[in-house]
Amino acid sequence: MLNTSPRKRPLRRLIFPILLMIVIYVLLGNARSVAENPFFPGASISVNRIVPVLGGVLFGPWAGLAVGLLGTAFNAVSPGGGYFEWLSILPHALMGLAAGILARMTPTPLPMLAVYLGIALQAAAFWIAGETSWIELSRSNFIWRQLSDGLVTIMAALVVAALFRITAASVRD
After folding, report:
1. pLDDT (0 to 100) of residue 10
2. Which of 87, 112, 114, 155 lies in the 20 to 30 Å Cα band around 102?
C-alpha cells in the first residue's frame, strides 16, 4: 500500500513536486480567461489558490509553504501578475503551511478548510494596503461570494488530491 503521508518523504524527493506545483500555480495565475474579481477591480478570481493547499495536503507543511510563497512570488513578477498578487504572497504561503499542518492532524477533508484562512488573510492584506474598506468586506454579497469560491476550491482540491493518490498508488503497484 502506498504511504502518502507527508511525514515520510525526504526533502530531495519533494523538490520535483514542489517545482511542478509552482509551475502549475504560475500557469493558473496567468490564465486570463479567468473572470475578473467583482470585489477588487483589477484582480482576478484566485483559481490558483488550490495549488498551495494541495502542496500542503499532499507533500507536507513546508511544501505547502514553499508552493504558496514561491508560486505567488513568481506569479507576481510574471506577465499575468500584478499588485494584488504581491499582496497575496503571505496569505497563500500561510494557507499552504496550514493545510500541511492540518493534513498531519486530521482526516483529508478538514485540511482543505485552510482555503478560508487564505481568503481571510488575503482580504486583510487588501484592507491593510487600502484597497478595500471594512464596509466592503462586511457586505453580505462579498462574504457569500468568498464562501462559495472557497467551497468550489475545496471541492476541486478534494477531487485532485484523490486522483493524485489513486494515480500514485497505481504507479507503485
Report:
1. 66
2. 87
Q: Is 22 helix (H, G, I), strand (E, B) or coil?
A: helix
Q: Would you state the pLDDT for residue 36?
A: 61
Separation CA 87–CA 85 (nearest Å): 5
CA distances from 124 to 27, 109, 166 (A): 25, 25, 37
Q: How far is the C-alpha of 15 from the C-alpha of 21, rounded, in Å?
A: 10
Q: How far is CA 62 from CA 95, 98, 123, in A?
A: 11, 10, 23
How many Å is the Cα radius of gyration of the chain? Answer: 16
**Which ranges in the chain belong to alpha helices (H)?**
11-29, 50-59, 61-77, 83-87, 89-105, 114-128, 134-138, 140-172
CB 131 within 8 A of CB 25: no
**Residue 11 reports pLDDT greater than 90:** no
Extract the C-alpha cell encoding 62.
513546508
Coil, strand or helix at 50: helix
Q: Give residue for cell 514542489.
A: 18
Is this model's pTM higher than 0.85 or not?
no
